[in-house]
Write a structure and sequence with these properties.
By secondary structure, the protein is α+β, with helices and mostly antiparallel strands. The chain is built from 5 helices and 13 strands.
């Protein structure tokens, strides 16, 4: 396998697409679940119900991270459902360099203990809140295989996961029937 060391800033490029909330337009808003539980579409609101009038647009496949909740790992990759949603200033938005990483591979990488420990080292406490130190965060090193290897690893992972889920479902069915006896 061909693995290389990259800095996170090689993979993530900061983006800021500012939008001023306009009259008579409805906007999608999101919620990022802590501990890599994903990004969900929270609601859709009319401009008059949105208090902060300067926001940022996010797009599918972008990486976003909360700068004031860094130690709870409030980050993820934007789903299709959340494309063109708005977020406030306390999130960082980044494009993922798809020449270096497969987005499915990097999503799995973001759940590793190695990455999470580095995220913990990238935060600091100020006024009883955890904040992200972006320089330390983006300077962390990642060991990444070439795209072909990533694609093969992802394919194997999802095949094994499917097999595991099928076995788990069968065990749950068996347990149900055993309890009926």
């Amino acid at each position: 396998m061909n693995w290389k060391i990259y800095k996170l800033w090689d993979i993530l490029t900061r983006k800021k697409l500012t939008i001023n909330i306009l009259n008579d337009i409805s906007y999608k808003r999101i919620t990022i679940k802590p501990y890599w539980k994903g990004i969900l579409l929270r609601d859709q609101k009319l401009w008059k119900n949105i208090l902060i009038k300067k926001q940022f647009i996010i797009n599918e496949w972008q990486f976003i991270i909360s700068i004031n909740n860094a130690n709870n790992w409030v980050f993820w990759v934007v789903s299709k459902e959340c494309d063109n949603s708005i977020i406030t200033w306390n999130f960082r938005i980044c494009d993922i360099n798809k020449k270096i990483v497969n987005t499915d591979w990097i999503k799995l990488y973001f759940t590793t203990d190695y990455f999470i420990n580095n995220c913990s080292k990238s935060s600091f406490l100020s006024k009883n809140k955890e904040y992200l130190n972006e320089i330390i965060f983006l300077n962390q090193e990642l060991y990444i295989p070439n795209i072909e290897t990533q694609n093969n690893l992802i394919k194997t992972y999802f095949n094994k996961k499917t097999e595991f889920d099928e076995v788990l479902n069968k065990l749950n069915d068996d347990e149900y029937y055993i309890k009926q006896l």
